[in-house]
Amino acid sequence: MAVLEAYKGVYFLWKFLPSQAASITFVVLFLSGTVVHSWSIYSYRSWFCIPFAIGCLCEFVGYTTRAVAYNRTGDIGTYIIQISFTVIAPAFFAASIYMTLSRIIRCVKGEHLSVIRTSRLTKTFVIGDLLSLGVQGGASSLTSNEDTAKIGEDIVLAGLFIQLVLLGFFLVITITFQRRLTKQPTTESHTTNALWRRTLYMIYASSVLIFARSIFRVVEYIQGHDGYSLGHEWTLYVFDTAPMFIVMVIFWVWYP
């Protein structure tokens, strides 16, 4: 029977034994999502969705190592892998969502209605997303060491705040574009066969879920290693895992 172990017999990385059943359930779900999204990318030649499939793969790796951690709670490598991959996965989701908006704007010939020039839109948000990704991914490992945990948490917080600002600004730009297009519809917005309105709603739903998840992660890291969130596993599955699974489903059902 698995027991909670301390790293080097001194520092407890976990406050509980991670649920193996819950982890395995989402391993299967995220693996299925990775396969389905990879096939869709190949079938539709939608290469801009590759980051989304990478995000699914990150979730799969994160929860696979979390399932393994049930019997290895004292192993720092397993802990670092699971926390790093689950933290950075949504940044990959966001990258494809940012690029989807640019494609919609070009599809309806609405470049003149965008707050940011379309040629710069993708670059601006993807570069910001990569910055957020690098900060979060690079600092996640620091949270596993008692001496560097506080520094690591602060750096991850900075990365999460970057992600929140980006998503908030992105939502403002998306809403502004749709309002302008509604008031000044282009010919293409009426004649194109592309389901751009449906795709916009998919963008809204996915972005809001990722935004809400990032707020949860901010609260989690503000509370610190001894906080309520890291001490109660249900918070992760309710406010992070389940929302990201829903994002994965939404993006596939209303595929851009």
What distance separates the N and C termini? 46 Å
- Overall geometry comes to elongated
Biggest sheet layout: none
Low-confidence stretches: none
Q: Count the DSSP helices.
A: 9
Percent in strands: under 5%
For this structure, the quaternary state is: single chain
Q: If you compute it from the alpha carbons, what radius of gyration comes out, rounded to the nearest whole angstrom?
A: 20 Å
Helix fraction, binned, reads: over 70%
Query: What structural category characterises the helix and strand content?
Result: mainly alpha
Brief summary of the model shown:
This protein is an all-alpha fold. It has helices at 20-44, 50-69, 76-107, 118-140, 149-183, 187-191, 196-223, 228-231, 234-253. It contains nine helices and no strands.
Annotation keywords:
about 260 residues, mainly alpha
Architecture blueprint of SSEs:
Elements: H1 20-44, H2 50-69, H3 76-107, H4 118-140, H5 149-183, H6 187-191, H7 196-223, H8 228-231, H9 234-253
Helix pairs in contact: 1-2, 1-9, 2-3, 3-4, 3-5, 3-7, 4-5, 5-7, 7-9
How would you sum up this structure, described in words?
75% of the residues lie in helices and 0% in strands. By secondary structure, the chain is mainly α. Helix 1 (20-44) runs parallel beside helix 9 and helix 5 (149-183) runs antiparallel to helix 7 (196-223). The longest helix is centred in the middle third of the chain and has 35 residues, at 149-183. The chain is elongated and about 70 Å long.
